[in-house]
Amino acid sequence: KAGVTQTPRYLIKTRGQQVTLSCSPISGHRSVSWYQQTPGQGLQFLFEYFSETQRNKGNFPGRFSGRQFSNSRSEMNVSTLELGDSALYLCASSLGQAINYGYTFGSGTRLTVV
Amino acid sequence: DQQVKQNSPSLSVQEGRISILNCDYTNSMFDYFLWYKKYPAEGPTFLISISSIKDKNEDGRFTVFLNKSAKHLSLHIVPSQPGDSAVYFCAASRTDSSYKLIFGSGTRLLVRP
Predict the structure, then answer these.
(1) With an 8 Å Cβ cutoff, are A56 and B98 in contact?
(2) Residue A107: predicted pLDDT
(3) pLDDT at A55 over 80
(4) Own/partner pairs for A36-42, CB < 8 Å, 24+ apart?
(5) Is residue A74 scored above 90 in pLDDT?
């Protein structure tokens, strides 16, 4: 079966712009989580959605937002981009609670803010 | 406030020898721990996990040990192979809540042929 698909793979944006990243989970998976990976910081949790509802949110400013559609596809949006937002953004999907069923990660979207 | 710490950013071992990757955590409420492996340009892939009711879990060449009193876990790879060269992340969670994993900063393992 198809894995987690993230688009686009690479993105270059200018400071102050906004960006939308997309994630299509594995078919049948209803939970989608987003993480930011930066060098030396590991993976920082952004938010998690289940059946179109945000169940948990990490410690990121309000410029970071997300949503999930009825087909479980998810988008995250970053407004007023800053240089520090340059990172690899990873999406992960699971059947339900990640701990019981395991996460499957996509390959990520590499965002560069210039 | 790093609740999960991997204090060694890198590790180099000879092929065939044992690789030991370490991870410490501070939140005593964590009760489930996982290891992920990540190759460049790919997302992390699940490797092995352990529940806090156990102190050891083994899967082939990979064994995870958990020392709850020390809030420490380790991943042993025996024997190490060049294909094991990757970044390894440990992660922790509370199964009663939160629906999220807290990751460490990763350890880059290089297995020399």
Answers:
(1) yes
(2) 95
(3) yes
(4) A36/A60, A36/A87, A36/A88, A36/A89, A36/A90, A37/A87, A37/A88, A37/A89, A37/A90, A37/A108, A38/A86, A38/A87, A38/A88, A40/B9, A40/B105, A41/B105, A42/B4, A42/B6, A42/B89, A42/B103, A42/B104, A42/B105, A42/B106
(5) yes
